[in-house]
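Session log. Operator J.P. requested a structure for one protein chain; no other inputs attached. Running the standard single-chain path with C-alpha cell output.
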Amino acid sequence: TAKKIFQEIPNESEVILNFRNIEFMSRSFAQEYVFQKHNSNCKITETNMIKSIEQLLKIVEEDFEETCLK
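Structure written below.
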C-alpha cells in the first residue's frame, strides 16, 4: 500500500499527507513508506500523526539511515 501511494503522487510535486484518524501503522508499512519517501522526487509533509506513529516512523527512519551509511 505504501508503494501504491507513491505511484499515485505526480513526480517532483509537493504533497501533504494527512494522517488524521490513522491509529495504527505496521512496521512493514512504515519501512516501505520510508523507503519510497527517500527514493521519491517529491516533497512529502505529514500532518496530524499520533505520537505512536511519529515514533515508529522516527525509529524506521533512523534504521534506514544507519543501513544506508554502511
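Operator note: The longest helix spans residues 51-69.
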